[in-house]
Amino acid sequence: MSYVDGFLIALPKANIEAYRKMAELGREVWMSHGALAYAECLADDVSYGELTSFPRAVQAKEDETVVFSWIVYRDRAHRDDVNSKVMNDPRMAGAMNDAPFDGKRMIFGGFEMVVES
């Protein structure tokens, strides 16, 4: 079964274009090092729930939207290998220093797929 890294962030709406450029670089770098798929998605039909929701999870403010993204790998070992190469890729130097979002509110983690098609 495949392995997935998932990410959830609050993105200031004013920074959507800057984020798109950063995401395009991310796609280029991860895919060049062997990732199987790379996706970055802006919230479209995401309500602010009473107890739980995507916006609540990242403490999204009125002027922010939610980004949901993921990267797919063959398995955990493949993910670790790809990420090691990505972190050493000169194209990524300083990428998080200039991130157009608050990295302290980013939620991320690795997931083993249990159902896949």
From TrEMBL:
Pfam assignment, any one: DUF1428
Record-linked Gene3D superfamilies: 3.30.70.100
Classification via InterPro entries: Dimeric_a/b-barrel (IPR011008), DUF1428 (IPR009874)
Origin: domain of life: Bacteria
Protein name: DUF1428 family protein
